[in-house]
Amino acid sequence: MENTFIYLDHAASTPVDPRVLEAMLPFFEQNFGNPSSIHRFGQKAEAAVESAREQMAAALNCQPREIIFTACGSESDNLALRGAALAARRERGTHHILISPVEHHAVSRTAEQLADVFGFELEYLPVDAHGRVSPEDVAVRLRPETAVVSVIHANNEIGTLNPIAEIGALCRARGIPFHTDAVQSGAHLPLDVDALKVDFLSLGAHKFYGPKGVGVLYARQGVPLLPVQTGGAQELGRRAGTQNVPYIVGMAAAFALVQQEHSDRAEHERALRDRIIGRVLEDIPEARLTGHPTERLPNHASFVFQGVDGNQLLMLLDVAGFACSSGSACKTGNPEPSEVLTALDLPREWALGSLRVTVGKDTNPEDVERFLDALPGLIAKARSLRKATTDNTVSNS
Ligand SMILES: Cc1ncc(COP(=O)(O)O)c(C=O)c1O
Q: Fewest C-beta in 10 Å: which of 180, 206, 211, 250?
């Protein structure tokens, strides 16, 4: 069964590329030193971390000192939001935070805590029916007292890409720090922090064939940032804790492979994505694409189906041998429509039936066809199960 199981959930996580694993292995064994140690074991580990930093910086078009290694994409988001907001309040006395309503919880929950516990005023930007933020809406909401703005680069649930460079230009003209969560786009798009005009950018390695438990925050030099994790002077005092050397090495190797291979990967994935979108909309009644039809991640297809319980559908898919998702991985299990789908103003009866299908660099077309052949029957089954549950609830009430 395991051999025939088809993985279509690359937005949740990706397998570690064997070339990445190979680069990591020596740093678990012979090169195990602490990068902060003076002796040669430490020197070797430090050299590996600094070389990884240079590689990440070259790929993002920034200075090595602007790279902060973290433990995951969520930590990068937390450090950017909390670190920038608290620093802005200390330096400029500002208290206003502006974010989109389609952020990952790593951003939105952090912003909510800054409002609830630290007294910041949190404002949400509007989005259009595709979950896109318009730069004009940002422009009218920026204020001298805005501490930080955060807009997701590519949405994890619906794949929509935001006009980050245009929003960045508006923030920069007013001297307001701007963060983007690029955790989903890291695997697919070239990310030049200068061209994007961002001050902070988050990445997590497990989305681009690197290991779980390691990430990066790009932090533009000169933009104030308070450390969130305090202690030792690692990462130039911006993130305390002994660096995870093998994982950092693995992340840099994985990101270097993205740079070399992303256009081939994207071409392969885009063809599969378009095939999925085309056939699902053609073969399945009462189905809608969520997110932008063209301005979306090359590997990402997402839908809502009327009268379906998304979690039930995922279970039916799993039994049939397909791994998909109904939104972000963290969402699975919650029967309520996600905040992202709610922000799109979908009727609840549609928003409850969401499905995310994300292909990867090694997904093969035959597997996609098997999935597409199986899906209409599974949707019909999910619909009849939901109808039976709803009828039962009505007759019992
Ligand atoms: C857009 C986005 N931001 C942040 C994260 C969190 O990243 P991590 O799992 O590395 O903490 C995810 C993970 O799904 C994501 O999709």
A: 211
Q: Which amino acid would we find at residue 245?
A: V
The Cα 205–Cα 48 span in angstroms is 17
> Atom 7 (ligand 1): residue with closest C-alpha?
73
- Please identify, in words, the CATH class of the domain defined by 2-12+262-396: alpha beta
> What architecture (CATH level 2) is domain 18-257?
3-Layer(aba) Sandwich (3.40)
The domain ranges of the chain are 2-12+262-396, 18-257
Query: What are the average pLDDT values for consecutive 10-residue runs of the chain, which has 397 residues?
Result: 82 98 97 97 98 98 98 98 98 97 98 98 98 98 98 98 98 98 95 98 98 98 98 97 98 97 97 98 98 98 96 97 80 72 92 96 98 98 91 68
DSSP letter at 160?
Answer: B
Kindly report whether the global pTM for this prediction surpasses the value 0.90. Answer: yes
Q: Which residues line ligand 1 (CB under 6 A)?
A: 72-74, 77, 104, 106, 152, 156, 181, 183-184, 204, 206, 215, 328-329
